[in-house]
Amino acid sequence: MLQREQRNENGCHNRYTLEVKGLTKAYGAHPVLENVSFSLGRGEVLGLLGPNGSGKTTLVKILCGLLRAGKGDVAILDRDYDSGRLDIYRRLGVFLDGEDHFSDLTLHENLTLEARVREIAHAKETVESWLQYFELSERRNRLASECSKGMKKKLGLCIALMHRPELVLLDEPFEGLDPVASLRLLNLLQSYREKGGSVVLTSHTLHLLPGVLDRAGFIVEGQLIEEQGGAIAQANLVQTYRSYYQSPCEPRCPVSWP
Are the C-beta atoms of residues 46 and 89 closer than 8 Å to each other? Predict the structure, then answer.
């Protein structure tokens, strides 16, 4: 179980941006998540780690309301999806790996539409600043369907973050990004955290995470186990990851090179 108690100076519980209690999810007879519970305070970044198929994306989809858990509860900013879905969506930012955008719209048109739907103040200037930040300005008039995977990822990150949400859920945000964009995303998340924003992200890019994570949670056989918090060192993160997921007997390479 991954849990952190937060109290103010009077000993009362502070308000969490995210509370998860007893989440269980199975696909048919195959359990994916078992009794997952954790909470996230303001200004915290939690990394969900694990190999392919461990349940990271399933958990993120439950948190953003795209999937229903078999059991358990999710509260986001003191609301649940049954009674406060619209309010949650106004205050939540979501990026899902492989998510499609409006393919027949340009990058600029996608962001402009998002800004209008979100009723973002100074929408024109905001759109321009995000295009510039992720080096999309010169390709602003390219259709989303004609963009590379990395460009689509940058577009998705802009859409997830441009309305300054209070909580952000990011599924594999670094995969497919060029080194400059990865560093800019790191800087962005650090600044976002300093201003009180909360982040849950999944990633396989372990070497980038120590600079931004406050807590690291490992999904092991469907359960979420927190092993590290505070100053997370890259060597410790990699070592812990290997201790959970690397087989003690590595398989032989199936190809014999000459």
Answer: no
Cα–Cα dist 38/18, whole Å: 8
Q: pLDDT tens for residues 111-157?
A: 999 999 999 999 999 999 999 999 999 999 999 999 999 999 999 99
* Structure token pair of residue 13: 């519980």
- Chain center to CA of 254: 34
Q: d(Cα 235, Cα 4) in Å, to the nearest integer?
A: 24
Please spell the DSSP secondary structure of 190-217, one letter per residue. Answer: HHHHHTT-EEEEE-S-GGGGGGT-SEEE
- What is the C-alpha separation between 27 and 23, in angstroms, rounded? 14
d(CA 82, CA 67): 13
CB 163 within 8 A of CB 155: no
For the chain, give the mean pLDDT.
87
The single residue listed with the structure tokens 């989303």 is 144
**Cβ contacts of 167 within 8 Å, gap of 6 or more:** 17, 18, 40, 76, 77, 91, 92, 93, 197, 198, 199, 200
Distance, CA of 44 to CA of 209 (rounded, Å): 13
DSSP at 15:
P
Q: Tell whether the model's pLDDT for residue 181 goes beyond 50.
A: yes
For helices 179-194 and 149-161, what crossing angle results, to 10°? Answer: 10
Helix axes 123-133, 107-117, angle to 10 degrees: 140
Residue 135 region by backbone torsions, left for phi larger than 0, else alpha for psi between -120 and 50, else beta: left
Task: Map out the domains of the chain with their CATH numbers.
Answer: 18-101+166-245 (3.40.50.300)
